[in-house]
Amino acid sequence: MHAWLCENPTGVDALQWKELPTPQPKAGEVLIEIKAASLNFPDLLIVQNKYQIKPPLPFVPGSEYAGVVAAVGEGVTQLKPGQSVACLLGTGGFASHVIAPAAACMPLPAGFPHADAAAFIMTYGTSHHALVDRAQLKAGETVLVLGAAGGVGTAAIQIAKAAGARVIAAASSDEKCELCKSIGADATINYSRENLRDAIKAATDGKGPDVVYDPVGGDFAEPVFRSIAWRGRYLVIGFTAGPIPALPLNLPLLKGASIVGVFWGAFAKQEPKANAAMLAELARWYGEGKIKPVIDATLPMAELKAAYARMGSRAVKGKLVMVN
Fold this sequence. Notes:
This protein has helices at 41-47, 114-118, 121-134, 151-162, 174-182, 196-203, 221-226, 250-255, 264-270, 272-287, 304-312; strands spanning 2-5, 16-19, 29-39, 64-72, 84-88, 97-101, 105-107, 142-145, 166-171, 187-190, 211-214, 233-236, 258-261, 295-300, 319-323. It is α/β, with parallel strands linked by helices and 324 residues long. Strands 3, 4, 5, 6, 7, 14 and 15 form a seven-stranded mixed β-sheet that branches. A six-stranded parallel β-sheet has the order 10-9-8-11-12-13, sandwiched between helices. Helix 8 (250-255) links the parallel strand 12 (233-236) and strand 13 (258-261). Helix 3 packs across helix 4 (151-162), helix 3 crosses helix 10 and helix 9 (264-270) packs across helix 10 (272-287). The longest helix has 16 residues, at 272-287. The chain is globular, with a radius of gyration of 20 Å. GO terms for molecular function: oxidoreductase activity; zinc ion binding.
């Protein structure tokens, strides 16, 4: 097998494409021939030693992937060789093969392409957990999505629309705003040239959004929270802008609003049955055409460093997917 190996987490340039022995699955494990793996923001942080999870060295980055079961270990009865699966384990995806716990694999229904499956679990799992579980989103409410043209942002738009909400998508260019409209956003804000608070006020008739989905953080957080509706829920997804904002705590007091943390990975570990039910619902929605990953580009696995550079440039709309 071959894999991108991180032996020293000093950044993308330190990754090396190496030939390694192909492992064999132990009890409860499967060997997966990887067909596609998506690039997520944590995949950048983890090779820079900036992610909250720090795997032992050396490791193969690539948190999310899909492929075909090549072999099964002792006691594995729910999966069989030749079956297509998707998996999200935090590492291992940027390779030709990987060992995964059978229990962590999501069997793919017929007609679910590997490229879509590799771009599915993290973004849609995060967005469904955030909007449906943590925010308790109701039909007819208004959702503001920041960073709306990215991987989690595009997933959030689709899930909010599937839940019956009105969606305002905020992004950094007219091109990205048009993409958001094409997947269901009811209104858009280009925050590179519009005053964010004024635009939110205009788009909500002064009421403000009921739910804010924020994977960006940075300087946007405070002005957006000041614009939130009474009893609003501000979903803290991540900090792609870099700085972690510090909000004055009088704001949630005055608004009767909630700051709600969203850590889908911890939810999946703490509440596996609820997570499995959620993923099953998302798979049904995919089959019904309600949701579909937005894929910016598919690139050969050998071009991983170029994909990292593209993601770092903020030019990506949706997800980047590496294919073998």
